[in-house]
Every structure is written in C-alpha cells, then in structure tokens.
Design goal:
Helices cover 20% and strands 25% of the residues. It has 436 residues and is α+β, with helices and mostly antiparallel strands. It has a seven-stranded mixed beta sheet with strand order 15-14-13-22-23-24-25, with helices on one face. Strands 2, 5, 6, 8, 9 and 11 form a six-stranded antiparallel beta sheet that branches. Strands 16-17-18-19-21-20 form a six-stranded mixed beta sheet, with helices on one face. The chain is globular and about 75 Å long.
Length: 436
C-alpha cells in the first residue's frame, strides 16, 4: 500500500538533533513525521537520487506534559541519532520496529533541486499492513461511563454538543485517542455538533505542516457527520516562538472556520438559542489579546437583534477580562465589551472560553464565565491566575483526556457539562455556574 509523502526542497534533516533546517538547495526532505510499522519499506524509484532516513522513538518525556514547555517541531519523539552523511542509500529501507521517520534526499550528481520535483515520483513509502487504530480498554470504559451519564440526564428537547479546547496537535501525542473517543461518543449520543475553542496546534511549524495537522484534526472531527464550529486561538496564527511563516487572518478563517469572517453566529430556532463565536487575538496589535472595535460592534448588533425570549451562549478562545487569564492583565476592548455584555446579561446563559489550560467558574459578572481545560494531555500548574483548577493528567489513563459533553436545556436556562477524562462536571442553572 503506497502512501503519499510531503517533500520540501531546500530543507535538510540535521544529523546532530534530527531537526529540520532550511537553506540547503542541494537537499529535499519530508517536513512531516511519518509513522512506520515492521515490514513497511521505502523504495527508490529514480536512480538519479539517493536518500537517508532519520528515525524517532515514540517515547514521551514528562517535561512535555508537566511543565510549560513546547517540544521542537511539535513532536513528542526521541531522535535515534541514526542519520549522517555516510548513511545515504539507493537500496530499499525496511523498517523492523514501530518508529516515526523523516527522509532526506540528494541528487547523485550533487546538483540543486528546482522546487518542482515531486518526492512521490522519486521514492515511495509502502506499508506492509494498513495502520489500524485500536481503542484502548481504559478509553472504552470512559466512553461507556460518560455516555451512560449523559443518557441518564437527557431530557426531551435538549441539544448536546462535544466541546473541546486547546488540542495543540503533537506528533506521537494523544490526538488519535481524543478523536476515537469523540467519534465513539457521537455514535452513542448522536450529538448536534462539535465545538473547538481554538489552538489546534502549537503554531511552531511551517505553513504547510501546520495546515496538514489542522486538516487532520478537522477531518477526524467531521467523521461524525455533524457541524463543526471553532473559534480562532492565538496559536492558530502560526506565529509562536517567532515562527517566520504565520497565517494571515483571511487564511485562518478559510482553514479553521471555512468562512470569510473570524466571527459568526449560529441559530437554533426551535430552541430560541443563538451561539456567538468571537475572535480574540491579533499578533499585529500592541495589546494582542482582546477584542477589536469591529468585533465589539458586531457583538452588540447580535445581542440587540435577537428577540427578547431568545438566549445566547458566547464562545471565544480568550476570556472577556484580563483578570480571568494569566498571559495578559490588560486586554484590548475589555471595558467596551463588558459594558455591552452587562447590558444584555439577561440574554446570556454563559461565556465559554479555552486558552488557560485549566478549568474555572466565574459568577461575578452577572452571567457565568467558564474556562475549559485543554484536551491535549498537559498539566502544568504555573502561569495560572487564582481560582484555576489544573487536574492531574496521566498517559494511558482516563485523565489523559479532557473534553466535555455540553447539554443545553433552554427551557430551564440550563447547561450541563459532563467531563470526559480529567476534571469535574459542571452545571449552569438560572444564571449561576457550579461544580458537580
């Protein structure tokens, strides 16, 4: 079974640390990490080239989970130091164990690549057997627990959604488990949609690689065949750690939202309910976090235009106030936004955001504000404002995962949050949020 590869001319894989480096026109390499199983092989199709293979152990260091630290090139792997100038070859490369790998190509005559060469015409990656994901017993058990709890709570006329935040896709990370759990839950619950509160990746790779990872996440979520709605996160700009290849706002809207604008509304007429999705980050502003004047005006129009008997849930990556996040004590447009939200607080069931990598309930503003824990298996306790809860996380355990089944009952003005994995359930009832 032949698998398509992504190649980038002018990039090499460094022998010392296995990381990529641009500025080498005599090389063409794969910027994406691929997974191989025993018996898989790489075959050279064109004798005018030679290739080298760097392999990476699928092992995860604790620091990526328990400290505020992002793995280089978004990869939770360990380079095996098996690439050097003497290991180029033209014969088949056959894998004997499960590893991640990247390939580096050169021309036999030493000339430069012209940027129009197709790596898939030069060599092929062939699988002995198709990769089949197998759901772990502990994950199946958590699916059963959560689905049973939701079904026992469910009432006629309610809407249910799967809600996740900050997936931060990582090679050899936990996304495959998260995706499988979401798909299995949907099979049991038949949810009405999926909501992602932003930060799909770390935003540290090239535009092509980030796009590749984002499209994988969205493709996995869309397998449920229900609407997928998202907000733009700060990392979704692809700017993190001075990344020289950021996405424009237009590109973000097209990639993550499938829309022309960064903010939008979704109505559920039968329930007299409106979802409002906001944008809350601009790397080009002095105050990067916050809400622009056009965004605030649009929110006002949305809240003014709906009938009095309708209710609203607002979703954003970032909280509406600086006191509810660590990274920016002063936020753009905070006073103006909060003035409007206070004026229409009777219509707002909740304001729900991600970004903080912790759970929080805030009832001070006249409507509940909730921060949702990150779905990526990561649990650092530093860089958190007072009141945030950071549950312990552990690989190969239900606490590895963290997302919610959100059940909305507009008749009761109620939202139940049933937590899958780490953390506790929550409820909003009559304008107040509480832990369960």
């Amino acid at each position: 079974m032949k698998n398509s590869l992504m190649g980038l001319a002018g990039m090499k894989i460094r022998a010392g640390d296995g990381l990529q480096e641009l500025g080498h026109p005599e090389m063409l390499s794969t910027p994406v990490f691929y997974f191989a199983q025993p018996g898989d092989q790489i075959r050279l199709l064109d004798s005018k080239f030679k290739f080298n293979v760097a392999t990476y152990e699928p092992e995860i260091e604790d620091r990526w989970i328990y400290t505020y630290d992002y793995a280089p090139e978004e990869s939770w792997t360990i380079y095996r130091q098996d690439l050097n100038g003497d290991t180029y070859r033209q014969d088949d490369y056959i894998f004997s164990e499960c590893v991640y790998f990247r390939i580096c190509l050169r021309k036999m005559d030493g000339t430069e690549f012209k940027n129009d060469e197709d790596i898939n015409q030069i060599l092929s990656f062939e699988r002995e057997q198709p990769y089949l994901y197998e759901m772990k017993p502990w994950l199946k058990k958590e699916v059963e627990r959560v689905s049973e709890r939701v079904m026992n709570l469910h009432e006629e006329g309610e809407l249910s959604f799967l809600l996740l935040a900050d997936s931060h896709y990582t090679v050899n990370g936990t996304w495959d488990d998260t995706s499988a759990a979401i798909q299995k839950l949907h099979q049991k619950l038949n949810v009405d949609g999926i909501i992602h509160l932003g930060d799909f990746t770390d935003g540290m790779t090239t535009r092509e690689v980030s796009r590749y990872y984002v499209e994988k996440i969205l493709s996995d979520l869309r397998k449920c065949d229900v609407p997928v709605w998202a907000t733009l996160g700060n990392h979704d700009t692809n700017y993190f750690k001075n990344n020289p290849e950021p996405f424009s706002l237009k590109e973000q809207c097209e990639l993550y939202l499938g829309r022309d604008e960064p903010r939008y509304a979704v109505d559920f007429a039968d329930q007299r309910l409106r979802f409002i999705f906001l944008d809350s980050f601009d790397p080009n502003e002095a105050l990067r976090y916050g809400y622009s004047a056009p965004c605030i005006q649009w929110v006002k129009e949305q809240l003014v235009s709906i009938p009095e008997e309708w209710q609203v849930i607002i979703f954003s990556h970032v909280a509406p106030m600086g006191r509810l996040q660590y990274w920016a004590k002063e936020m753009r447009g905070e006073e103006e936004l909060m003035e409007i939200l206070h004026e229409h607080s009777s219509k707002i069931i909740a304001f729900i955001n991600g970004h903080n990598h912790g759970d929080l309930i805030d009832n001070i503003e006249g409507f509940p504000i909730l921060s949702i824990l990150n779905s990526k298996c990561e649990a650092f306790t530093e860089y958190k404002s007072p009141g945030f809860v950071t549950p312990h996380r552990k690989l190969e355990d239900s606490s590895q995962e963290a997302f919610d089944v959100m059940v909305v009952n507009t008749r009761k003005r109620q939202i139940r949050f049933v937590r899958f994995g780490a953390g506790n359930d929550k409820i909003i009832l009559d304008g107040k949020a509480e832990w369960l």
